[in-house]
Amino acid sequence: MTDVTLRVWRGDASGGDFEEYVTEQNEGEVVLDLIHRIQATEAPDLACRWNCKAGKCGSCAAEINGKPRLLCMTRMDQLPEGPVTVTPMKTFPIIRDLVTDVSFNYRMAEKVPALLPPPMPEEGYRMFQEDVERGQEFRKCIECFMCQDVCHVIRDHEENKTNYAGPRFFIRYAELEMHPLDTNDRRDFIREEAGLGYCNITKCCTEVCPEHIKITDNAIIPLKERVVDAHYDPVAWLGRKIRRKTKTKAADAAVQPAP
Amino acid sequence: MTYEHHEYDVVIIGAGGAGLRAAVEAKQQGLSVALITKSLLGKAHTVMAEGGMAAAMGNVYPEDNWKVHFRDTMRGGKYLNNYRMAELHAKEAPQRVLELEQWGALFDRTKDGKIQQRDFGGHRYARLAHVGDRTGLELIRTLQQKVVSMGTDVFMECKVLKLVHDLEGRIAGCVAYWRATGEFVTFSAKAVILATGGSGKSWKFTSNSWEGTGDGHAMALWAGAKLIDMECIQFHPTGMVWPLSVRGLLVTEGVRGDGGVLRNSEGKRFMFNYVADMFRAETAETEEEADKWYDDHTAGRRPPELLPRDEVARAINAEVKAGRGSPHGGVYLDIASRRSPEFIRRRLPSMYHQFMELAGVDITKEPMEIGPTNHYIMGGVQVDAESAETAVPGLFAAGEVTGGMHGANRLGGNSLSDLIVFGRRAGLGAVAYVQAGAVAREMNMAEVEAAVAEALAPFDAEEGENPYDIQRDLQEMMQANVGIIRTESELLEAAAALDAFSDRLKKIKVKGGRAYNPGWNLATDLPAMLAVCQCVTRGATLRQESRGGHTREDYPNADPTFATFNLAHRSDGGNWDSPIFTERSPLLPIPAELKALLEEAH
After folding, report:
1. How far is residue A214's CA from residue A203's CA, in Å, rounded to a whole number?
2. Cβ-defined contact of A139 to B131 (cutoff 8 Å)
3. pLDDT tens digits for A72-111?
4. Cβ-defined contact of A45 to B517 (cutoff 8 Å)
5. Where are the domains of chain A?
6. Looking at this predicted complex, what is its ipTM?
7. Which terminus of chain B, N or C, has less C-beta within 10 A?
């Protein structure tokens, strides 16, 4: 057991400052353990969002020494020695202390045109492991919104928040576009409403993803190829016509009875 | 006072699997629906479920069907179940799982393109539909996306304090506060569905997230409903034990379903020594026989590691007590020596990361140290199996907050399927009740004012205790006295201690303001935590036998006379400090044709 100093940002929408807490640290502890210890002793009103404390729910995202991290998965013994700085995610408005207003993400979720599958046969759809695996990678997302936090398009430009869905929703769109059952066409929507063109592929989102989803390589770049290029490039436009047929074919196959 | 106010046909409290599924159903029937959650949408405890959801689809073993699933559930529950719930669950689960795929779920597949199913304890056949070891995330995301696409009104980080009646005693709505501002808000509703989940947070070592404070159990009790089987608590056999900071965190049963075995400090597979008579005929006698079973269920009988959870948890407890435990007071769960690293990483990716990142253990190379952790409460609100209605008109309940479905012990995988089967039924039940028309009209505002005054009291105190101190002491007391093995002297000690906690709750002092104040939020959770602890302790004292998730050192055997009733608790007064009464509530008699299924030799 050792003592360690945490510098925690405290305040609300009207402003705030760092407060220093010296607290004990035991073997194997994560930053969230220390925040909890501070709450249980000297600052019961220190606001911090968390649920599972197991890296599965994505509630406790904040910035540790300036980098987006999950408080529950960041071990103290893996941080450099010296005071540890904990601040709220910068891209979202402050509610209090480490808690931010992430409603931007829920508004973007409301806009997503839903999956449009063919009617389900009585015995269920047929899909194959290799066809569901691409979507499964994106469905690992725990919605911690750290990819949104770190994305320069909205981190540094508040005005872009009205017409930019962000990396979390680009993987959602990629998932739907690659879904074996989907027959919906979202390509114009993704370009015009979700603002895919704003992304300049700096891969910051991929670097912070706690689920190690290859956001840029496996979702954004393929989406750009399908959506942005299709719009400007007549050859891709032709490919798009052909692809639409392929998409319908895949969905058709899923409702065929077993051989 | 006047408060922000909303009006809906149906208000659903809790946005885990059951609440979301109920919302889909009520919304599909054209009613106005509000979904209230004390966290953000998509963060409920369902997200932590790992192994899968049980449904007798027969995709891997065509021999499987609802009758076998029903039998397994009742045997696992040691016959304390509401048989009708177990029957409906077994019959309807396959359709509920299949429909998730229409809404976007992507389950792992069999070679011929069907939903893959895995083995779990107590299930005769491989029956759990799954996505690696993150099935709960898939369930919650699928339902969340469905609910959002339907345009449902969701109230996030909104904590419900109490249900409110009309002057005739029907449920008329609820009173809540926004966590962000601390401002109060009232919801009037023709029907309310409780889907608030469990109560593990009253114990020190638990797999539950902070939300598991038994809010719905307590609100139902205070509103006039009955809680049954509260003594039946599932201690999951495999929680992490080290480092201390993650003690209790779940390690999926899928590890054992996929070939992992339990060993003591001598390296022995000790579970062979703990096979109860009830399961002897279907359990392997040698390691060789057990190992054949994984590939072909007809080549040998089941490994004893896959007995129901209550059996395995007690065995681990006994090994540790006998001095054959691991350095940190658990035993070893070994899959590294039995399966290839590629297999382990593909089938159990979350477990791989969880141990690597939190404990520095590579589970493809080393065994895991594990021990029992408070995981699930079988007990809860007594409901009608068909409609999910409680004894209070207009109040419905679904999911972990209910009792009866799982009897004295729940089988792994039966929880996620419970959520979707009875979440849907609660939605339908509420719709039918609303459409029948005999609904509440106006909230009794005196109840609202009383709840608000109670919630604000900790701010007015000149001095008093930090709510975190009370929570810690309560967790330690329950862990010590009402844990996995119980005895009368400790239970009486617990009952006396709970009286003292009741006094301490009246003297809480909260620091700071009302806006996003976790100390205050905890102070408003504590009355519910206490109510759950009181019912659990009363039930555990009165059930003088051992059955499922209730083990008495002083009454080590099951007693047939206790197999005929549930212990039911009700509140006399409806306040958090009102006295609780406990009575015997006879079990539903099982029809002969279903009884025959239970007695069938397999």
Report:
1. 9
2. yes
3. 999 999 999 999 999 999 999 999 999 999 999 999 999 9
4. yes
5. 2-100, 103-254
6. 0.95
7. N
Alpha-carbon gap, residue B304 to B261, rounded angstroms: 9
Alpha helices in chain A (DSSP H): 31-40, 103-110, 129-139, 146-150, 152-155, 167-177, 187-192, 204-208, 221-232, 234-254
CA distance A256 to B107: 18
- Report the gap between the CA of A13 and the closest CA in chain B (Å): 12
User: Is residue B295 pLDDT above 90, yes or no?
Assistant: no
Kindly report the three-state secondary structure assignment for every residue of B104-141.
CCCCCECCCCCECEECCCCCCCCCEECCCCCHHHHHHH
Q: Please list every residue in chain A whose beta carbon sits closer than 8 Å to the beta carbon of residue B129.
A: none
pLDDT digit string (tens) for B516-545? 999 999 999 999 999 999 999 999 999 999
Global pTM value: 0.96
Distance from CA of B288 to the nearest CA of A (A): 32
How would DSSP label each residue in A143-167?
---HHHHH-HHHHS-GGGGGS---H
Q: Which residues have a Cβ under 8 Å from the Cβ of B565 and sit 6 or more positions away?
A: B584, B585, B586, B587
pLDDT of residue A235: 54
The model's pLDDT over B98-109, given as tens digits with 9 standing for 90+, comes to 999 999 999 999
Structural domains of chain B, ranges and CATH numbers in brackets: 4-234+375-445 (3.50.50.60), 241-372 (3.90.700.10), 457-578 (1.20.58.100)
> Residue B42 pLDDT more than 90?
yes
pLDDT of residue A236: 52
Q: CATH for A2-100?
A: 3.10.20.30
Q: Which CATH class is domain A103-254?
A: mainly alpha
Annotated catalytic residue, options B89, B141, B165, B256: B256
Instruction: Write out the two tokens for B476.
Output: 């330690």
